[in-house]
Amino acid sequence: MNEALIKNMIRNCFYQYHYTKETLPLSESDYRRLLEEIWKMQRDQPDAELYELIEDVVYEFITNSNQ
Fold first, then answer.
1. Crossing angle of helices 28-44 and 3-16, rounded to 10°
2. For residues 4 and 13, what is the distance between their CA atoms, to the nearest angstrom?
3. How many other CB atoms are there within 10 angstroms of residue 10's CB atom?
């Protein structure tokens, strides 16, 4: 899967949670961790839609980083 496309989809998902380009809480290592988690989930759930996996991973990231 195209890494740049997935990174863009991750960024857009954060925008749905009212983050902006300036407030996006992601470092390059965060992107890498999210990408790896998405790829792992995609292997485990081959029938799942990519956007659903991304939304799940981003939601998990946001809820765990606010604790």
1. 100
2. 14
3. 21
**Token pair in block for residue 65:** 């980083």
pTM of the model: 0.87
The residue type found at 46 is: P
The kind and range of the H/E element at 31 are helix 28-44
- Give pLDDT tens digits for 5-21: 999 999 999 999 999 99
pLDDT tens, position by position, 1-59? 689 999 999 999 999 999 999 999 899 999 999 999 999 999 999 999 999 999 999 99
Q: Which residue, 25, 27, 62, 55, is CA-closest to 41?
A: 55
Q: Is 53 exposed, middle or buried (0-12, 13-18, 19+ CB in 10 A)?
A: buried
